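User: Continuing from earlier, I have the next pair ready.

Assistant: Great, send them over.

User: Here they are, in order.

Assistant: Folding the first of the pair now:
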Amino acid sequence: MPVDMTLEQLHSLLKELCKLPAETEWVEFKRNADIEKLGEYISALANSAALLGKQAAYLVYGVDDLTHEIVGTNFKPAQQKYKQQEIENWLLQKLSPKTYFHFYDFLAGPEDNIPVVILEIQPASHQPIQFDGVEFIRSGSYKKKLKDFPQKERELWRIFDSIPFEQQLAATNLTADKVLQLLEYPAYFDLTGLPLPDNRSGILDALVSDRLLEPAAGGHWNITNLGAILFARQLQAFQHLARKAVRLILYKGNSRIETIREIEGNKGYAIEFEWLIDYLKNILPANEEIAKALRKEVPAYPVLAIRELVANAIIHQDFSITGTGPMIEVFASRMEITNPGVPLVDTKRFLDSPPRSRNEALASFMRRINICEERGSGIDKVVFQTELYQLPAPVFEVTEQHTRCILFSYKSFMDMDKEERVRACYLHCCLKYVNREPMNNPSLRERFNIEAKNKSMVTRVINDTLDSQLIKIYDPTAGMKARRYIPFWG
């Protein structure tokens, strides 16, 4: 349960509110309560506070609305009932979506003997607050139906829509103790390299500075989605994030018919990422020799490529798609990494385009703690690593609601089909281009580990890729031996 403000805090708050020159759209003063209208005022004040960017709204009983003089009230919220119901229960049933409010009943005035009640109200966060199916708003000092003010309604929705997922709230109005129970805060200090404060206040301040946490009314705290998705001790403690844990499935063979093992994470991404990568390294097969450059036992898939693609799946997912999260599927000869949401960049331009992320705060924090590569270099490294390991080129594909990357285990040039060779040629050309090195026949021979005497095989691949209009000749006037190539978009 939230911890009440101290009497000193309440006196200070009352003093500040009474200093206001007049009633505002987020503060209402009344002598006594009209119980039937109480829910409408909560709706109006919660919506107006959101519109104005306030951390709380207040309905103050026992203060004159003109002079702001403390005059006292006979309103006793703990004793008050409406149609045989306690008013808090009645209000909670009628308010939608559920919003936090709290009555503070105390004595104030010059001699601290005048009864005052402050109703503290949390602002609306994702949609307007309704009371009994109707949304209200404040216009000046008046309570009105929101539908009668279409401009305010549009602005309110714009505010809700502009709040990125990371800054939306995963849990609200928590005590400090509850926050520290829900978040693996020592991991935050460990990963960021910051010293662990020796007091609770220092810990909370650090989490607030990185927007993992935000202060709420009455000395309480809100955990943001960013804080929960990165540092939750258990994602299941946050209902809307429970299905966002990374799933890992190991199959027998190359189909999904028989599952060997399935693991679903239950911690925040920052906590669990390294464990997940280490687990993958342990279950993946190894090859003793893939190419001349690699004469020792190496993983079947480059670890750097796996790290980058798993991080991408986490960072670029669309959190608005419910019931699904990042998934890693391991088959006998391929690995598929899938995330909810279609990409914001054409898959053919993954390698050269700076990434556009729906979740920039999440992406920035994961780069900061070295979970993924710097901006713009990740997919370059994935392609480079697959070439170094002499693997088929990765596939990037899009379904109706998901993005999938597929890594393939080693396959010789002779075993690759035409499509695989063309895809490898295109990505090699892209990689060369972003490194300011146009592709040529020798560079592609090296990529496929083909000797010079067999250069005609590579020429055929280049011609097939030209026919696919994925690459073009850099200088059409150059002779065949000097010919170089760039991507179609170059």
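And the other member of the pair:
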Amino acid sequence: MFENLSDRLSGVFRSLSGRGRLTEENIQGGLREVRLALLEADVNFRVARDFVERVREKCLGRSAIKGVTPARQVVSIVHDELVALLGGDTAPLNLRGASPAVVMLVGLQGSGKTTSAAKIANLLRKQKMRPCLVPVDVYRPAAIEQLQTLAKQLDMPCFPSTPDVNPVEIARAAVEFARTDEVRATVLLLDTAGRLHVDEPLMEELSAIRAAVNPQEILFVADAMTGQDAVTVAEAFNARLGLTGVVLTKMDGDARGGAALSIRAVTDAPVKFVGVGEKLSELEVFHPERIAGRILGMGDVLTLVEKAQSAINAEEAEILARKLQKASFDLEDFREQMRRLKKMGSLDGLLKLVPGLGNLREKLAEANAAVPEKELARTEAIINSMTMAERRAPDILNGSRRARIARGAGVTVARVNQMVRQFDQMRQMMKSMMGGKGMPRRVFPGMGGMGMPAVPGLDGPPAGRSCATRKKKKERRKKKKK
């Protein structure tokens, strides 16, 4: 989402990197570009103006640090100010007080309140809480059925609302429903009604619901694609209801990111969650420092580690390590690892989390290289076209089998051969890295006897062939020529 802003800021920092020292003149020129980058990203003009002014004051007031280039100092200052702009620290939900705790989701129609309610409920259940969903939108057609369907997918309780009941009465009844022995919910999530625009009847209804159930959290759900309009609407909701947090949806789209940078500064309500996909599991806690790192191209290793931990547990990792060490890692295991990788999100998104690899996709496009997702899809199709025996023992793949697999996967036989060859090379390499035995080894001078696998074409003659043997062969060739 922040790609355009990130690219523009990277260009500004590159222009400053050639300066031996920073003066007021070149700082002003660089910050002018920063301000334009923020405005192009749809950041509120007041927020952009104040942000640039704070950065300018700190740049001019900070003395040079030995060993640190002026451009890096500017990056550090911009990073710190971005973190402050986004809220400083992560803001968790405040669910203390009476039980069940009530979380009220508000916003315009189409912003994603219903799906966000289900996503937050799913996240809270992972934190050992017992959420219950409450459809309070009695106006939008099928709104109640939509939330009930999502609750059924998640296998969690949902209050049986009906369109003929007043929303305030639904909210009151839901609190009593949550306290029953069958439900015993600890958190209620109210999916309230929205409109296409802010109007007085909507605000009166939401104010009445707030007075009836006294929610601990009032979360404003904003579509990140709406830009400046989201900020204006958030101000109106905050003035009437007193927002405690913001949920940004569609952060995986091509929005320019201005809403995320502006809402916090304008309403003083922290962004608590961001939706990064359509699946009910694709909701992330908003970490200002991590988002600032992504914007400045520094990556986000912590989020990458969390995604990896959610995709594979320690026991599975240990089993996989043993298979790699014994070289018993087969195509069935390979396919399973690819599927786990998909659960972590798109490869494009994962690359952006690795420092320095954020622009790798653009480089692949410039080189006319295949998109990683497409390559993974082709590889999985090839493996799916194999029998169980072939996946577990790739060595049995002869010419006729490979031709059948190619037809089933819709690829050429050459592509099947390439995949099998690459898999075999990867298995051998992983075995050597894990310290397995059975591979030809050679000893390099000066390495204290450390055995390293020979690499044909790079490491000279194959392992095990002595100098004397090579000398004898050379002499025999000479004799034949004579």
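Worth noting for the second one:
Residues 436-466 have pLDDT under 50 and may be disordered. The beta strands are 101-106, 131-135, 187-191, 217-223, 245-249, 271-275, 283-285, 441-443, 451-453.
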